Structure of Helix-turn-helix domain-containing protein:
Amino acid sequence: MLLSSHHAQRIVEDMYHIANYNLIFANEEGIIIASVDQSRIGDLHEGALEVLRTKRKVVIEHDGQYRGALTGITYPLFLYKRIVGVIGITGAEAEVGKIGEVVKRVVEMLVKEVYTERQRELEYTARESFVQDWLLQEQEDEQLCASRGLLLGIDVSLPRAAGIFEVIHNGSVFLAEPGGLQKQHSKSSIVKRVKELLPNAESDVIVPIGGSRYVVLFAVPDMTEWERKDYISGSILSLKEWLENELGSAVAAGVGQCGQGVAGVKQSYWEGEKAVYFSKKRTGSPATFYHDLRLERLIYDLQPASRKEYVRSILQLDRLPDPQQALETLRLLFKHNHSITEVAQELHIHKNTVQYRLNKIRDLTGFDPRTFEDAAVLHLAVVLHSLEEEDRP
């Protein structure tokens, strides 16, 4: 039966409290799955079997006329002309006959609602599974992937930009736990609401991936990357703000460049992965677009051990008398495009003091931050060091 025993039992009990009628539900095998008298649950109801056989109501004139049956009327329940179960009302025909047809119609409507909701859930699960396979698995047959997508209403040939929204909780990635935040916000309800906020709801695709991420595949027009960024920026910010308000946690957003076809959109997703990684490290940043990443593109692919070794060998922090002061001076030098005056103003010190610090860095590291080549080496080391610090628990 399409109605679960849990839902059936609730209907039985509600009907009893409202109209004081005893009802039983029987499944397509004639087994009682819900009853006010719960001792009857699991019993075979031969009156229900007769209803299933004839597809018509059966009047039971006295207890025991059919094994497992009490006096009353049993009705077939139909869904799209198919019999899906039986409902029985206990009582004399003269007493329950008038209300019986009404109860039958109400229950059939409830069964239809449950069936429709279940179909939506199945479609939702199928779409989620397909998109995860598309983005995370190797696709040996792109035509098969495209056909599977079309069956689910997803056109994989459209140009798309992948946006990744990652929920952050207390400064760390939020992972759903039993009884935690996600229990109050089902993924399907969030997906449904977010879908309503998308600029092109018919073509855009949203699915959850893991316990802390939602991925949106934005269908974008044929335009330049900068124009695409402007086109979806408003939606990115709206979705990020809505998720933060709904879930009560910060959300990092990263967006890949536009890709087309099975492989192109997958590439956009992995670019979004890199973008959201750096978005999590930029406090207060509304979103990070892969198109805007420069050094970060190379940094992301470096192994942690390689990053650490580069920082150690270039900055040689153990040789500097005040490592934090040196790092801050370098960071501001690169921030202000090598303007000694602006660095001095922000640090509230004399320009000569800035020059002294830079000379000290040159003497102890062997790299002069005032020359282009050495500045590039030091800049990369400073960026890697800041990432290393942020990654520490």
